[in-house]
Design goal:
This protein is α/β, with parallel strands linked by helices and about 220 residues long. The protein has one domain: Rossmann fold (3-Layer(aba) Sandwich). Helices cover about 40% and strands about 15% of the residues. The strands form two sheets. A six-stranded parallel β-sheet has the order 2-1-5-6-7-8, sandwiched between helices. A two-stranded parallel ribbon has the order 3-4. The model has no long low-confidence stretch (mean pLDDT about 95).
């Protein structure tokens, strides 16, 4: 069963991607993986709504849902379909701009983001990607890139915060602010990093998750 905070990994990432965040959380949390998002494929339905339903089956009422990159689509879809289960959303480096969803555009943005990632991340990213498999990642992204996050967010009724890092070109500042405005929420740019804040900005992320959960830590 789920905890007050549920964290869904980004595309290809596994439960360990949230370890740097969880070590700073002072409230119970649980990582839930999904096909393409920490799990390989086994004839799974990768539609965002289907993944949201699968996620919702593991939630309790009042959950703070945290998504990263393309998994932000799934947590938003879950909040829309099951509003009684979700108390707040924290979206980390969300993608979902259908006007920039072509493969050449995505590849270019990924490269401009990747050059800013820290080299020490390579071994852990490689391990997680190979476990999820590149086949699962490619098929999941093929579906996710057609999900219009901007169209979905105005329907969200729970507090929402959008977080990004200064060198994240997959989630540029104007896109993050647009999503926050559509949801009636907040957009913040973290102090450092690129598209992997879950691995590089754990303390900062934990502070925002505490706030979303109504837990205010001194200092």
């Amino acid at each position: 069963m789920s905890a007050p905070v549920v964290l869904v990994p980004g595309l290809g990432l596994g439960p360990e991607s949230y370890a740097p965040t969880q070590q700073h959380l002072e409230i119970p949390s649980e990582v839930i993986t999904l096909p393409g998002y920490g799990e390989p494929l086994h004839q799974d339905d990768l539609r965002v709504d289907a993944l949201a339903e699968r996620l919702a089956q593991q939630l309790k009422p009042g959950t703070v849902l945290v998504g990263h990159s393309a998994s932000c689509h799934t947590v938003v879809a879950a909040a829309l379909a099951y509003p009684d289960l979700v108390s707040a959303l924290v979206l980390l480096g969300p993608t979902g701009d259908v006007n920039a969803s072509g493969w050449p555009t995505l590849a270019g943005r990924w490269v401009r983001s990747a050059v800013w990632e820290r080299p020490y991340l390579i071994p852990t990213l490689t391990k997680q990607y190979f476990r999820t498999t590149f086949r699962a990642m490619a098929q999941a992204e093929q579906v996710a890139r057609h999900y219009d996050l901007a169209a979905a967010l105005p329907q969200v009724v729970v507090p929402t915060v959008v977080l990004r890092c200064p060198h994240d070109h997959l989630c540029p500042p104007q896109w993050a602010q647009r999503l926050a405005d559509l949801a009636g929420g907040e957009a913040w740019t973290l102090s450092t990093g690129s598209h992997m804040p879950v691995l590089t900005n754990g303390r900062e992320l934990a502070a925002f998750i505490h706030r979303a959960a109504g837990v205010y830590k001194a200092g």
